Protein 1
Amino acid sequence: MPLVSFSELIAGAKNGKLVSFPTDTVPALASRPDSAELIFTAKERGQDKPLILMAGFAEDLWPYVAGTPEELEIWQNIAKKYWPGALTLVLPASEKVSPQMNPLDPTTLGIRVPNSPIARKILRETGPLATTSANKSGQPALLNLQEIAAEFLEVLALSPQEFETTPTTGIPSTVVKWTLGGWEILRQGAIIL
């Protein structure tokens, strides 16, 4: 698929197509949550690896999680400290979450706000998107949009002419899961807790 403009990428995402854009960690492969099966198919990814719901604002993500007022306060405090940034919070999922996001355990959901101006600009236009790294399952993450467009012919990849280059670390986000009133590190990434 050729590289596309910002407006073409937004329109494609809203119409349920696969898209790719830079983030602060690695470029994202993304779709509307109700089209998440497209990501699993394109990546040849097993159902045992859930997707992350990414948004431009933290406030856009809280309706997708379910917890007590006390838990929500704890989660929002850690989000205020590390977002936008490379921290993914795995929390109990609300009924609003498409089961396609986490097919084998739809009771939990990973959420994140990236520290990338272009990613947040896109996500503010599209609303929260199902995301993962742009690569075939088991392969290293592709780090430039030209490679992504060549590897995934069905994906609308944002043209580099559409944004100022922002540094990507190439290091995935740290993933922490809320369990029994505390945090469990599922993947150590860019942020050290």
Protein 2
Amino acid sequence: MTKAERLIAIVTFLRSRRRAVTADLLAERLGVSRRTLYRDIQSLMLSGVPVRGEAGVGYIIDADATLPPLTFSEAEIEALMLGARLVKAWGDDGMVTAADEAMTRIRAVLPDAMIQRFNRRTTPFLVPTSSRRERARFGELIRRGAAEQRVIELSYADVDGRETERQVEPLGLIFWGSAWTLIAWCRLRGDYRMFRLDRMVALSLTEEIFEARPGRSLQDYIRQYSPDMDTQFWSL
């Protein structure tokens, strides 16, 4: 990573945070020594970038500061395109549309020279889309139910094809690499249950609103069964 790339990375990372970031965290993220990080911070300050803070405390950029437009490296664009392809292969229709729109906006701000370089290349990152609609069905309704805390009624088939009717309180979705599962509080069992989307026969949102309760949330489930899983929105 060149110095110019490091300076852009520092500004971008500081802008993404609302609290001071320590020099140790910045240096570790950039893969440089603290001495190099201090010199980079000094360069930013001398060039007029409104970085505040000091060594041993941390650094922050004023939230209302006017800064240059966001730029991406080619490696970052490749990572974003791979993420978009994964969403298009395994996400529901709403997420697919959002991914397309996001990539259109990103493409609109890229330098022409970078776009031309990508236009002359093919990608080694391919994600088959043949199973998308089957595996992601009901995804939009489930996300809406979780966001609005609305009870879901569903017909669910077990591994042997036996169907049961359930009323569940949707908490969140987890993708396991081959299938999506709904994490929910099942009223029939009085406990957490996982339901694979590709085994759902029918699903509908009711008008009933369920209340958030201590010990009955996606975070509580994760802490109990998969404590290493990150539930923060920004995984940085």
Protein 3
Amino acid sequence: MSVRRFAKLGAYRAAQWSRVVPTVWMLRNPFKIHEYVEVVSGAGLKPGQVLLDLGCGKGFQTQIMARSCARAIGLDVAPGRIAEARRFLKHSCVEDRVEFLAGKVEEAGLPAESLDRVVSFCVLEHIPNLDQVLAELFRLLKPGGEMHVSVDALASIRNPELLARHRRDHHVVEYFTPATLRQRLEKARFEVTEIRPIMTGEFARTQFEDRIARSDFSHGIFARARFTRRLQEDDRRSGSPDGIMLVARARKGAGSAGA
């Protein structure tokens, strides 16, 4: 283990023992902080629920959400990310509530109607077999269960070179519009309750373009707090239908069969 990784793990362990984290401010990208708040604030997480974090990465967000429910499952197709997530989980105050799995959701063997919530942060646009994955998520949710997701739209980004670079660098299969996202969710038999853009203002657009060009979305702790507040204020004032991302909420009807 490198000195840097050892120091990072030690700081994380100390923070966990002090009950300060997990917290959304562990995310160095303020766009992701804003995204997390927008998705989770409307997810209705409650004690007793079982949650799946689809495309969990290193699992920080999974751990944050686990504080609000009975059990959280983080799943990612990248084994290296899951290995990292498990290392950090060993020093977490929610270790007994979280499980990390490597692989594809359609191959994970999770039981039908075993989930209360599915949450995903900008993952669906990277999935080539999205219809199959959405059908599996529908099967896994209990009747009345809900899915809360964000997806990349980049509707306000007009520069085709930056769009092409973002698609290439982040392996994007499809950018969504409200209409195309609704069509995919309804095809999987979900009842769509909300689709709305976020990061709709000029500040979000110019800053996102700059970060694509720099291939770096990270900020220091104080800068990310100021940046996130600016994104929130920008969304409240903008009123534009075009945003960097979309937030969608959908449910499995109470009378729907799992299979």
